[in-house]
Write a structure and sequence with these properties.
This protein has about 300 residues and is α+β, with helices and mostly antiparallel strands. The protein folds into three domains: about 90 residues; about 50 residues, SH3 type barrels (Roll), CATH 2.30.30.60; about 80 residues, Alpha-Beta Plaits (2-Layer Sandwich), CATH 3.30.70. The strands form two sheets. A five-stranded antiparallel sheet has the order 4-3-2-1-5. A three-stranded antiparallel sheet has the order 6-8-7. The chain is elongated, with a radius of gyration of 38 Å. It starts with 11 loop residues before the first helix and ends in a 25-residue tail after the last helix.
């Protein structure tokens, strides 16, 4: 083609020389920047050491501030997060000398928005965990019930809460689930009220039956004597007069089960000894036509 000059290919030796010169410049820049890299690593190491010291001794530091374990843990965790953020910012400014605090904070703001949009659920659980720890509705060791999860709290972390079911399984529950749903703290107090229904036959003396049951329940080992035992006739059942028995016992599920077992046993024994009948359901069968009886010949 006319008017176009022929472009000669660059010799291989010249291309290799150009690549070598570029690598040399990169290596010189790296060596020149090495002190900044080492200094930034030293800053990160110092930050890590400070965080370790805060985690080890921070619990004792906040012991005078509050007696609640969950609140002390929250203070320590928030303090470690702040230390890590400041340490990373300072390490970035050391690594890049032209980076100012204003630019660093602006970059952190943009990065936090992007991370917040990408990990929305994670941050929701994080802030829910902070609110749970701050409001301390329950502590480690409490027995709670939330939806279909009932068990003992083993640890309350910023993002998750681990609960050990009464049957032994370990459940890791997101804090947002506990924050949004109603949560019953079964061991918020050392005592808990329990109710069962007993029944006596219609032909028995109800007042005498109430006295017998009340005396038997008060003598139980698992029934607290600092609260009143309440025994009241409740209604007319299918085959018995229903009597509601209410008492106070320990708050843990194991104590409640043990107490119910003891109370049912002593009520049965006391009514038997008093000669009071505990009825069982009766069934009456009716037929439209008379039944024909047939005598079998032996």
């Amino acid at each position: 083609m006319e008017g176009l000059e022929e472009i000669a290919p660059e010799p291989v030796s010249e291309a290799a020389q150009t690549v070598a010169e570029s690598l040399g410049e990169v290596w010189k820049d790296f060596l020149a920047h090495t002190p900044f890299v080492i200094a930034s690593f030293m800053v990160l190491l110092a930050t890590w050491l400070i965080v370790v010291l805060v985690r080890r001794f921070g619990w004792h530091l906040f012991q005078r501030t509050t007696s609640r374990k969950s609140l002390r843990d929250l203070f320590v965790r928030l303090l470690t997060i702040v230390i890590w953020v400041l340490g990373l910012l300072f390490a970035a400014m050391v690594l890049f000398p032209g980076l100012t605090p204003a630019k660093a904070l602006g970059a952190v703001g943009l990065l936090s928005v992007a991370i917040g949009l990408a990990f929305k659920d994670m941050f929701e659980n994080f802030f829910a965990g902070i609110l749970i720890l701050w409001r301390f509705p329950f502590e480690e060791g409490d027995v709670i019930a939330c939806e279909n999860i009932t068990g003992r709290v083993e640890s309350v972390e910023v993002r998750n809460t681990t609960i050990r079911r009464m049957t032994g399984e370990l459940v890791v529950v997101p804090n947002l689930f506990l924050f949004k749903n109603p949560c019953e703290v079964l061991t918020n107090r050392v005592k808990r009220r329990v109710s069962i229904t007993a029944g006596v036959a219609y032909g028995e003396d109800v007042e005498e039956s109430v006295k017998v049951i009340e005396t038997a329940v008060k003598a139980c080992r698992t029934v607290r004597d600092d609260e009143q035992v309440q025994v009241y006739p409740e209604g007319f059942g299918d085959s018995s007069i229903d009597i509601e028995v209410t008492w106070w016992t320990g708050s843990t599920p194991g104590q409640v089960r043990e107490s119910i077992g003891e109370v049912v046993t002593v009520i049965k024994k006391a009514l038997d000894e008093a000669g009071i009948e505990i009825p069982f359901p009766y069934r009456t069968l009716t037929f439209k036509e008379p039944l024909k009886l047939r005598e079998e010949k032996g």
